């Protein structure tokens, strides 16, 4: 005899697939939702199912809804000649929140970590050189975390990008503590790291 209806078990399993959500937390979340009214549950599931229309921007790999190119890449107010390379979407988000950057982004979808199978070919680099040429990019900012994987990725990117003509390659200033995550830096620290960026 099942303790709870099958659909509840199923949702607990779904939550359990999320990063950082163990079995107990998954149960707690599902029981929390079950105490809410139907309107809440309907909105929640609708918001979730609407994500199926979201895809990756063919230029920068940011999220885009229906359109092939995201709103940042198509915004005429953004400076196409400065390109900020980040590891993940949340890094783009924190840099946008500083309000201090007007260029475009390029999301790598990870950093080099050979032990975990993240090799050069897994990074989103296929169209990078082409983007730099097409947008007449003059500066690439390597906004990666100052940890071992981030440093290895900065070295690798510097090696391939330094072959392109007339391109300044910079990295965030040492305001960020070694081994720390851009994600957790406060806005002021990140703002300073961005404006005091230096050549690699
Ligand atoms: Zn884009």
TrEMBL record:
<dbReference type="Pfam" id="PF13662">
    <property type="entry name" value="Toprim_4"/>
</dbReference>
<dbReference type="Pfam" id="PF21175">
    <property type="entry name" value="RecR_C"/>
</dbReference>
<dbReference type="GO" id="GO:0003677">
    <property type="term" value="F:DNA binding"/>
</dbReference>
<feature type="domain" description="Toprim">
    <location>
        <begin position="81"/>
        <end position="177"/>
    </location>
</feature>
<dbReference type="InterPro" id="IPR023627">
    <property type="entry name" value="Rcmb_RecR"/>
</dbReference>
<keyword id="KW-0479">Metal-binding</keyword>
<keyword id="KW-0233">DNA recombination</keyword>
<keyword id="KW-0863">Zinc-finger</keyword>
<keyword id="KW-0862">Zinc</keyword>
<comment type="function">
    <text>May play a role in DNA repair. It seems to be involved in an RecBC-independent recombinational process of DNA repair. It may act with RecF and RecO.</text>
</comment>
<dbReference type="InterPro" id="IPR006171">
    <property type="entry name" value="TOPRIM_dom"/>
</dbReference>
<dbReference type="InterPro" id="IPR034137">
    <property type="entry name" value="TOPRIM_RecR"/>
</dbReference>
<dbReference type="InterPro" id="IPR000093">
    <property type="entry name" value="DNA_Rcmb_RecR"/>
</dbReference>
<comment type="similarity">
    <text>Belongs to the RecR family.</text>
</comment>
<keyword id="KW-0234">DNA repair</keyword>
<dbReference type="GO" id="GO:0006310">
    <property type="term" value="P:DNA recombination"/>
</dbReference>
<dbReference type="Pfam" id="PF21176">
    <property type="entry name" value="RecR_HhH"/>
</dbReference>
<dbReference type="GO" id="GO:0006281">
    <property type="term" value="P:DNA repair"/>
</dbReference>
<dbReference type="GO" id="GO:0008270">
    <property type="term" value="F:zinc ion binding"/>
</dbReference>
<protein>
    <recommendedName>
        <fullName>Recombination protein RecR</fullName>
    </recommendedName>
</protein>
<keyword id="KW-0227">DNA damage</keyword>
């Amino acid at each position: 005899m099942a303790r709870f209806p099958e659909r509840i078990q199923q949702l607990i399993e779904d939550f359990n697939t999320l990063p950082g959500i163990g079995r107990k937390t998954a149960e707690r979340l599902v029981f929390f939702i079950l105490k809410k009214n139907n309107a809440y549950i309907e909105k929640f599931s609708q918001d979730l199912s609407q994500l199926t229309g979201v895809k990756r921007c063919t230029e920068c790999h940011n999220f885009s809804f229906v359109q092939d190119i995201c709103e940042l890449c198509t915004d005429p107010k953004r400076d196409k000649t400065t390109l900020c390379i980040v590891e993940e979407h949340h890094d783009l988000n924190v840099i946008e929140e500083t309000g201090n950057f007007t260029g475009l982004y390029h999301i790598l979808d990870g950093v080099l970590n050979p032990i975990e199978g993240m090799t050069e070919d897994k990074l989103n680099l296929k169209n990078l050189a082409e983007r730099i040429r097409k947008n007449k990019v003059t500066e690439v900012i390597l906004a990666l975390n100052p940890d071992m994987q981030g440093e290895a990725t900065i070295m690798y990117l510097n090696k391939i990008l330094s072959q392109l003509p007339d391109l300044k390659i910079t990295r965030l200033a040492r305001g960020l503590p070694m081994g720390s995550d851009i994600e957790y830096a406060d806005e002021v620290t990140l703002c300073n790291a961005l404006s005091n960026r230096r050549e690699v």
